[in-house]
Amino acid sequence: MSSALWIGTTGLTASNKQLDVIGNNLANSNTIGFKAGDTSFASMLSQSLSGGSGAMQVGQGVGVAAVTTQFGQGSFETTGNATDVSIDGAGFFIVKDRKEDLLYYTRAGSFYINKDGDLSDLSGYLVQGHVIGPDGKESTEMSKINLTGRKSKPHETTTFDLGLNLNVETEATDAVNHFSSSQTIYDSTGTKHNMAITFTRSSSLDGLWNVSGTVDGGGTVVPDHAWMEFNDKGALITDTTREILAGKKVYTDANKTEAMTKDTPMAGTVFDNGNVSKKFNIGDTIKITGDGAVVNYTIALNDTIKSFLAAIEGAYATHDVQANLVDGRIVLIDKKTGASTMTCTFADDNGVFGAMKNDNEYGQLGGTKMSAHDITFDFSGQSTAIGKNGKITWNLTGEDAPEVTSYAIDSRVNYMSNDGYPAGLLNSIDVNKNGIIQGFFTNGQQQQLGRIMTASFTNNGGLNKVGSYFMETAESGAATIGTPSQGGLGGLQSHSLEISNTDVAKEFIKMIAAQRAYQANSRIITSADQMLQELMNIKR
Predict the structure, then answer these.
(1) Alpha carbon of 126 to those of 74, 95, 109: distances in Å?
(2) Are 199 and 396 spatial neighbours (Cβ–Cβ below 8 Å)?
């Protein structure tokens, strides 16, 4: 009977410890990242009783064999804080106590940026990960993640996109025969500038518009290809020229008429004004007359139309002109005004010639108009900090280039953008599933700032629990550090926290069971006491 008293006592002690675990679980039912504990019981040593036909064994009560941690996934709570992060799957955040220089592991991802700019948890421990520099390179050494002074460097405008319509009903003789658009561009220091692009209707060719540009109201700049040409449907001619610029041989019709380019050899070229035509060979001389000057151009072995155009430009003494090949014709543009009203004549002893053609095995050249080209403005004479060494390119031929048309509606800009931006300060952050901390800056740019790393263990049950944290032990095995959402590690979710995995309903059921066990063991002690009392009463 005395054994029954002690056995009942072990039951009371075990039930009391179970109730402690249940109380701790319920107390932490709202603790972020908390993992509930579970009590495991084991029968204590048995004593053998002799007698009868064999030995009999009676247990000596119950004891708490272990209090295990349940690492099941908790539910997620959405928050409005970007630095609140949860793990969807396996793994632990790694934090460091800078005072004791110890690493702790936790599922509680309630982080914030402290006064030193370090990503920390609510206990002041520093979140560990990889730093990503301004050059985009990620460090391989794990350290704290500091976001102090992170800025987005300025980027000078080097290219721009412009989608617009130029009114086909605009007459070259109108008092207002042009259209202008302006946009903000940035130099290499991030300083703002105003770039204006002006489009002027040509008086020499239908469907042709001349292009010029200015920055901050400075001198007018005429680009190398200072014109755009539209077909009779109001569309910018693009496809054929894009293939030519890519180095392909292009034919303009079923008779294999080859399209003319500036690299076409001068030898074999024909000048034709509709009445007189002349095919030129190496050694022939062409008289170029313009602006009162005469240049005698003799065709050499490797001369191309490009070198011939350069000679034409040299024929003008008082004007800075640019000669362009358009649909087999020469178009002259005044670089100061952007006008294409200037003309020149080409002749030899046999007559005066106009349009350029070519007589070869494919037939005549120049049957397709060649208007599509990226247009580059050279502002290097004003500032080399603008653009790429002073040059800014209008993307007209790229696959993503916005549409440029010439319809019978008002001239207007439909789309405008460029690749320049000023310097920016860090405005907000976000964390993706791979742990990348993405920074959003006041200049509209994004930049990767760092990566939160996570860890896993061979035996989670071997970890030493220290409050809401865990510490590595020999039983748990060494931590394996890795990238979230890779190698079996769970992905991260920003703006959310993992709440306690305590199941309140189950804990109440366990509480009832513990209470009943405690009552039963109390009755054992009471009954044993009554039996001993009866034994003591025998002497009476």
Answers:
(1) 23, 5, 12
(2) no
160, burial (CB in 10 Å: exposed 0-12, middle 13-18, buried 19+) = buried
Radius of gyration of the chain (CA): 43
Q: Which of 16-20, 225-229, 453-457 has the lowest mean pLDDT?
A: 225-229
Judgement on whether residues 233 and 376 belong to the same structural domain of the protein: yes
Q: 27-36, 272-281, 368-377, 518-527: which has the minimum mean pLDDT?
A: 368-377
Measured from the Cβ of residue 346, the count of other Cβ atoms closer than 10 Å reads 22
Q: Cα(170)–Cα(200) distance, rounded to whole angstroms?
A: 9
d(CA 394, CA 227): 12
d(Cα 34, Cα 24) in Å, to the nearest integer? 11
Looking at the fold, whether 279 and 359 belong to one and the same domain comes out as yes
- Among 355, 370, 385, the domain-final residue is 370
41 Cβ contact partners less than 8 Å away, ≥ 6 residues apart = 14, 18, 62, 63, 64, 65
pLDDT band for position 1 (cuts 50, 70, 90): low
Indicate if 234 and 375 belong to the same structural domain: yes
DSSP state for residue 487 in the 8-state scheme: T
DSSP 213-267: EEETT---B--SS-EEEB-TTSBBP-HHHHHHHTT---BSSTT-PBPP-TTSBST
Please report whether residue 448 resides in a domain. Answer: yes
Average pLDDT over residues 130-136: 91
At 123, phi and psi to the nearest 5? -90, 0
Query: In this structure, how many other beta carbons lie within 10 angstroms of the beta carbon of residue 152?
Result: 23
Q: Does 511 score more than 70 pLDDT? A: yes
Question: Which amino acid, residue 175?
Answer: A
Q: Do residues 141 and 162 both lie within one domain?
A: no
Work out the end-to-end distance of the chain between its first and last CA atoms, rounded to an integer number of angstroms: 20
Instruction: Express the helix, strand and coil content of the chain in percent, nearest 5 each.
Output: 15, 40, 45
Q: Quote the number of domains for the chain.
A: 4
Residue 111: domain span: 79-153+431-498
CA distance 185 to 194: 6
Residue 285 lies in a domain: yes
Tokens linked to 335: 């670089």
CA distance 198 to 255: 39
Three-class secondary structure of residue 426 per DSSP? strand
Q: What are phi and psi of 304, to 5 degrees?
A: -125, 175
Q: What are the residues whose beta carbons fall under 8 Å from the beta carbon of 269, sequence distance 6 or more? A: 279, 280, 305, 356, 357, 358, 365
Task: For 426-461, write each residue's pLDDT tens digit.
Answer: 999 999 999 999 999 999 999 999 999 999 999 999
Q: Tell me, yes or no, whether 243 lies in a domain.
A: no
Q: At what angle do helices 504-537 and 2-27 cross, to 10 degrees?
A: 160
CA distance 193 to 393: 16
Q: 3-state class of 334 per DSSP? A: strand
Among 209, 160, 210, smallest CA distance to 183 is for: 160
